[in-house]
Amino acid sequence: MPDTLGANSLDTVKDGADQTFMVDVIEASREQPVIVDFWAPWCGPCKTLAPALEKAVRAAKGKVRLVKINIDENPGVAGQLGVKSIPAVFAFDRGRPVDGFMGAVPESQIRMFVDKLAGLAGPDAAAEELEVALKEAGEALALGDVGGAAQIYAVVLQADPENIKAIVGLARCYLAAGEVEQARDMLAMIPDEKSKDADVVSLRAALELASAAPSGADTAAFDAALKTNPNDHAARFDLAGALAARGNLEGAVNELLTIVEKDRDWNEGAARAQVLKIFEAAGLSSDIAKAGRRRLSTILFS
Question: Considering just the CA atoms, what is the radius of gyration of the chain in Å?
């Protein structure tokens, strides 16, 4: 699982340069306001201003972006804008500077400055961008690109730390990577009032499946047992558990329904009970659950 994030359209705080100013600031501000913070490593007030400015921008949840430019390394744009002292903060909207201030100002004033700019952004623009990102992350995870999905979910959480879908999505990435404890830590981040959310219920079921998986979850051993005896339902049940622990819920459903098809009452209906748990883990409206329920109904009522 990557610990650092690459460049991403949802990363609301980034370092800029003279060479990238047109793209990072001018062009980007045609979509939403962009704040530019001109600073230098030797500037004491800059070190006070920067954390408060970043905090306010991230609290705006994607409606405003911040580009930080070190004038020691990039003096060009600062000179063109007539920056004489730092910190110097400029706000751009629709390709033009619209506001700004000089020096370290109180945090309350910074919040007002950022909130004012956030009001210039379309109210649904940031939400739409987050939804697109979440869809891309879900597709990446479904295709097995766990690292790519995790990176997108992490960036969404930078913009919106309480986004339930992103928290659940990142937890599923941890599960797919076999990092059950990290997934459990993500679940603990979800507030109690969201505990009944369908995505949260699904994640909790997935965690229960992972925790109940046979030790080692080595599918090769179970495959070998089934080649010797295709009717070894215990081995097939354990294989389903191992597949579920790895996030292969569709494969787990197939193995469990094979047991039900051959002996629906095996082990007091354990396979049927487990397949229902997997439907819950996949999401009751997911394609896996829908297809599985159809097949289960055919088995039970044919």
Answer: 26
The residue count for the chain? 302
| Residue that terminates a domain, selected from 62, 86, 118 | 118
In which element (H, E) is residue 206 found? helix 198-212
Quote the domain boundaries for residue 155.
125-190
Q: Which residues contact 44 (CB under 8 A, 6 or more apart)?
A: none
Whether residue 43 lies in the annotated active site: yes
H or E element that contains 131: helix 125-142
**Residue 114 falls inside a structural domain:** yes
Q: How confident is the model at residue 302 (pLDDT cuts 50, 70, 90)?
A: confident
Domain boundary, last residue among 118, 152, 175: 118
Calculated CA dihedral for residues 126, 170, 66, 46, nearest 10 degrees = 150
> pTM higher than 0.70 for the full model?
no
* Active-site pick, 25, 35, 43, 252: 43
The residue from 46, 183, 200, 242 that is catalytic is 46
Task: Report the DSSP pairing between strands 34-39 and 88-93.
Answer: antiparallel
Output the six-digit token pair for 80: 């063109």
Catalytic-residue membership of 173:
no
Q: How confident is residue 176, by pLDDT bands cut at 50, 70 and 90?
A: confident
Determine contact, residues 112/105, Cβ cutoff 8 Å. Answer: no
Structure tokens at 260: 């039900």
Is the pLDDT at 123 greater than 90, yes or no? no
CB 255 within 8 A of CB 246: no
